[in-house]
Amino acid sequence: MAYFSIQNSRLARPQTQTVMRVMCGIAVFIFTISMTAAQSPFEERHAGNNHHERKTASQRVNVVQNLLGIKIEGNVSIPRSTIMPYIKSHPQRPANPAQVKKDISALYGTGWFSSVRSTYRMKEKGPLLVFQVVESPIVKKVEYRGNKKIKDKHLAANTGLKRGSAFNIHSNKDAVSRLEKFYHEKGFFFAKVKLIKGDRNDDREVIFRINEGPKVRVTKIKFTGNKFFRDSVLKLKMKTKTAILWKFSGLYNPETIPEDIVALKEYYHSLGFFDVRIKQKVSFTKGKGYVTIEYKIKEGIRYKLRKVEYIGNNIFSSKQLSEESKLRAGDYFDTRKMTKDVAAIKDRYGKLGRLFATVQATPRFLETPGQADLELRINEDKVYIIRKIDVNIRGDQTHTKRSVALNAGTISPGDLADPKEIMRSKARIEGLQIFERGGEKGVQIHINRVEKSAQKKPVFRGQNKSFPRSYPRRKTAPPVRRKLRKVSPRYRTQRTTRRRSVFRGQSEELANPFEKKQNSYRAPANPFRENNSFRENNRVSTRTAPSIQRRLRTSSRTTPRSSSQTIPYHSAVGSEAVPQPYQTIQQQSHTDDLGLSHPVNPLFETSPQGDLYGDTVRQEYPNLVDIIVEPTEARTGRLMFGVGVNSDAGVVGSIVLDERNFDLFRPPRTIGDLLDGNAWRGAGQRFRIEAVPGSQLSRYMVNWSDPYVFDTNYSLGLSGFFFSRFYDDWTEQRLGGRISIGRQFTPFFSLNASLRLEQVEVSNPRVPTPPELAASVGEAFLSTIKLNATYDQRDSSFLPSEGYILRAGYEQAFGDFSYPRFNAKANTYWTVRSRHDGAGKHIVSLGGEIAWTGDDTPIFENYFAGGFSTFRGFDFRGIGPDTGGVKTGGKFMALGSVEYRFPLMANEMFHGVVFSDFGTVENDVALDNFRVTVGAGVRIMVPAMGPVPLAFDFAVPLTSLSSDERRLFSFYMGFTK
């Protein structure tokens, strides 16, 4: 109405206008008075109540008044001195409502009070702040009765009850169940706990009565009805373990039995026993201290495949896909083989750049018992090309260069996006031992699909901006794949703590090959697991995309979300790409993001009707992805102490200082660099200082190496050493250094060239001294140049089971001695037998070595054989040319060995070996004095002592010479911490 009256004031009469002005003035005066009254002083307030009582003027406190004091009311058993430290409001300071609220929260947090309220009382000298509290019951005593095997302090830590804590009946009753669970976890399955005091409101003491009972251990696990698998194999799949000597380990936990049954069923399902049924029976001894668990198994029929069907494959025919198939029609169903087949199919498509191709394997059960069809449904997807690769090292204060991770990868911008190569790059980055491995902190790979709108359009000088994103190509052009220049995958970058740089090959104007080199790496097999209702679900789903990242992760970056789309890649979501500066395309060039040059019509835009300069068709823009690598820095420095003993070198100790992320060119600039650990670190180089003192052998060495020197594929190594060895016939000392340069040409083939400079001293020769030894007594300078080639196709560097390795080298000495030297060595491995699940491998290995050196070779460079590492059955350096009882070594050596290795236990901790070593060492190229030994031994795997097993071998010679020194037993033991 007021608004209407004002707008229409021109129509009113003068008297009416005067009345309205008076009324408006009165209204403004009343409003001012009411607002003044609303601004009341600090009123008395009660925390915890929803209503506010009306206060009188005498009760109001001005916020600027200082508090007269603080008073506690309602406390009976808790003294004021105990309460006051939790109150931060102070007398003689102005009242602060926010601080009073914090004080109330602090008092509630003690657990001593069930109610806390605050109020102000006006006194003559000022306001008094009063906290009115209602005490909660307090525990005066906590007692555990009957516990003999577990101490009170462990029980108290489990219940959380202690003298002076708040008394709560529900907490006391809950403590009973917690104590029983705690006892059960410790193996006291029959333990019972009763609350005899503390369950009433007037109680102030909490007392538990405990009947511990015996500690129950599993002494035996039996299986009945299992015909296909041995008991020892089935036990490997279970969490429940038997006790050792009835006193150690093997605690009984009934909660693990259902989990064991599920694991056993999954194991049977993986090999085609889809109808398996398993029940358990638990039997206790009379004293209930020991238990026997029996699993009754009905294996049922093992299913065979009637046919294997491929669906959705257009690029490859079903015949092509089945050529290397491990699982064929008529075979028994085997998850391990099926997984390998799925991985092989995925690899085929991956090599074509079909990054997101999927293969889903589904067994279809038939009405005929024991028969099923295997359906492999393929989604071929599209071809993707890597646009750029970025590295973001996670951490607050990182010091590692981004080029360290980039150099280790096998992929480059412009390559086809092969998931196998992406996974291999991830494994190589983890293999640097610079970044964390596995888990959330492990190396994460994010793959971002670049949207069409984010792909930069070509820019032409003087051309219309609306030029269509299409690339003309003549219909008559031959279907020849373009060969373009290769962008090197090595990058020179700055540290992550500095300004981010633009790397070579990382901008959006990429010039990279359309072709991808073919590699034959074995894809990791994905485990096949299914629930108990496998047959009923009637479906097996296998995801074959590499497990690059298991957690969904996001990353805040500067690139707008509209520019790139994050693609889930086997439960992975990649972060968005970091934008790179655009480059200006000069003159009339027409190139796309991959540097592909196409003919351009400078006058007319392309159209479906063609143009004046040629008959063209549209070419689809390539599908691009960005790859973001996110590693987390790990601890790279180690100080290790070790001890070892073997039959060749006696007892040796080991002290090693090792840094795997060294930077030779980053000395400390400030004290902070040393304290923060930034000095001498960050370039991925390796620095190692090693001291190995021993009873017969001592070695001291300093070594520096860079696997990607100057961000190239070349490696560089520098080392200096001192070596001392007490041989039976003389004492030898070497002081020198070595420079080596290497190159990894392929994942399997590498070359290495080295220069060796040594000062050698031979002393304490045996008397009488043969001429060969006398000629070398004293000091000599040895210098050689050596070239080594290695081709390694083994599946593992430790304990390989498949593949082979070939090594050959040529060395030329100059200086005090001048002679050529040649050696070649080969080892191959076969798995001749294994369990149905692929474990328990029986491995046959065959190895041979041949070496020759020139006539001017000094005695300390001759070839010797014998001992654990070269020729078992003989003593260290126990065979070869002999002059007057002194082993002088030979100019020619030919050695060989064949070994059969097999597991002695289902868990493969113990292996047995049967072997034969053969060969000879001669002064000339000949096999006149050929020796042969046969023997057997044991290998013991101890994870805490490193990847190399303990070895104990017995060997006897079948053919030998009278001058040979025999040894029946040889061994190796080592430990590093």
From TrEMBL:
Major localization listed first in the record, in broad terms: membrane
Domain POTRA: 216-300, 303-381
A Pfam cross-reference name: Omp85
Localization per Swiss-Prot or TrEMBL: Membrane
Keywords (A to Z) from UniProt: Cell outer membrane, Membrane, Signal, Transmembrane
The keyword Transmembrane is annotated on this UniProt entry: yes
Compositional bias per record (Low complexity), positions renumbered to this chain: 555-568
Assigned GO CC terms: outer membrane
Segments for region (Disordered): 454-574
Compositionally biased spans, kind Basic residues: 471-502
Stated name of the protein: Outer membrane protein assembly factor YaeT
Source organism of the structure: hydrothermal vent metagenome
